[in-house]
């Protein structure tokens, strides 16, 4: 499964757009929750400023290996730099936004989503 969502791109706006890839495993409940959470976050906080690709690691194992995906769901922000990763079901919106460097974050913590630099 590879899906592209909400691609609004012009060359002048390319650097201000978030290029995101969500790596998931199959159609598990955890996968569904992560996709729903990410879609909600993108629609509420990245309005028209994102490109989202969803990659099923069962269908594209080489791609997951190339990106060094060790756990799913894993969200990768490729643009704007720096590259960032958020691992988990993305249920903690503030932590996801902080991990993606979308806004200065709060210090809320949740075991369901963690961020790390590559």
Question: What does the model show?
Answer:
25% of the residues lie in helices and 28% in strands. With 118 residues, it is an alpha+beta fold. It has one domain: 3-Layer(aba) Sandwich (Glutaredoxin), CATH 3.40.30.10. It has a six-stranded mixed sheet with strand order 1-3-2-4-5-6, with helices on one face. Strand 2 (18-24), helix 1 and strand 3 (50-56) form a beta-alpha-beta unit. The longest helix is centred in the first third of the chain and has 17 residues, at 29-45. The radius of gyration is 13 Å and the shape is globular. It starts with a strand and ends with a strand.
Provide the fold topology.
Blueprint lengths: L1 E4 L12 E7 L4 H17 L4 E7 L4 H6 L7 E6 L4 E5 L4 H7 L13 E4 L2
């Amino acid at each position: 499964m590879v899906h592209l969502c909400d691609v609004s791109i012009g060359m002048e706006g390319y650097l201000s757009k978030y290029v995101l890839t969500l790596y998931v495993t199959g159609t598990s409940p955890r996968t569904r929750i992560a996709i729903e959470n990410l879609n909600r976050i993108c629609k509420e906080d990245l309005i028209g400023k994102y490109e989202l690709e969803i990659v099923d690691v069962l269908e594209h194992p080489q791609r997951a290996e190339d990106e060094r995906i060790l756990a799913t769901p894993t969200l990768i922000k490729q643009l704007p730099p720096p590259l960032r990763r958020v691992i988990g079901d993305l249920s903690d919106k503030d932590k996801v936004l902080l991990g993606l460097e979308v806004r200065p974050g709060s210090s809320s913590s949740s075991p369901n989503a963690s961020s790390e630099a590559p």
